[in-house]
Amino acid sequence: MDVFILIMKLFCCVLLLTTTSAATNNCPSAKCSLFSPDIRFPFRIQGRQPLQCSVPGFDLFCRQNTTMIHMPSYGDLVVRSISYDARRLSLLDPKTCVYEVFLNLDLSLTPFSYYYAVEQYKYINCSAQIVGSSERVPCLSGSDHHVYIVESSFPVPVSCSVVRTVAIPFSYSPYLSADSSFGLGFTWKLVEEEATCSGRMLGILCSSTRRLQKYFKGN
Ligand SMILES: *[C@@H]1O[C@H](CO)[C@@H](O)[C@H](O)[C@H]1NC(C)=O
Ligand SMILES: *[C@@H]1O[C@H](CO)[C@@H](O)[C@H](O)[C@H]1NC(C)=O
């Protein structure tokens, strides 16, 4: 009996691998426009590529020939490029304020983590300018408020309140911040579900890549 189960499991896994690669092979790549990135597994363009060509959470869409991704806690970002080998998704903020993206993004709601190592930084919002080494973040500041990104140990001046402490890849620097994509890169990890495949459930579980592929979080 045990041998039978073992054989069924082996058979199942062989089938699993074949269905997985077959499903991926039947997924032609797509792009939003001629010079847009090639979209393929684990991503897909909603409405243009079949559901089984992707993993949940990896859905993209086209807006005016531009490839976009919706970030649950922030909004829509532009997909600049995807490196499938390096597992890097490079993005651009259409509102051209990556530090606002860093402030509001909650990647725990997504399959992604930052491509670059992150560190805790404190966003502070001040009624008067701080004199010293910190540079205010122009896209978050106004005539009567000044936002700075400081190390988490930085003593908060009385004219400032803490907006939030967040783990972000880069602190603000006027030299690095000319473009709207600096540091805005994500990575992802996928695993295939294991050991849930038994002979009995073969037909259901081995039929779809989308069911078998999952992502996991971790660094
Ligand atoms: C999108 O691309 C098509 C074909 O290249 C072009 O005709 C159309 O004007 C473009 N639309 C926008 C909004 O750029
Ligand atoms: C900073 O404070 C100003 C004025 O109180 C407010 O309008 C603005 O939204 C605040 N900015 C952030 C990033 O919290």
TrEMBL record:
Topology in the lipid bilayer: Single-pass membrane protein
Q: Where in the cell is it found?
A: Membrane
Origin: domain of life: Eukaryota
Going by the UniProt record, its keywords in alphabetical order are:
Membrane, Metal-binding, Signal, Transferase, Transmembrane, Transmembrane helix, Ubl conjugation pathway, Zinc, Zinc-finger
GO CC, one annotated term: membrane
Q: Which family does it belong to?
A: Belongs to the RING-type zinc finger family. ATL subfamily.
Question: What is the protein named?
Answer: RING-type E3 ubiquitin transferase
Question: What organism does the UniProt record list as the source?
Answer: Sesamum angolense
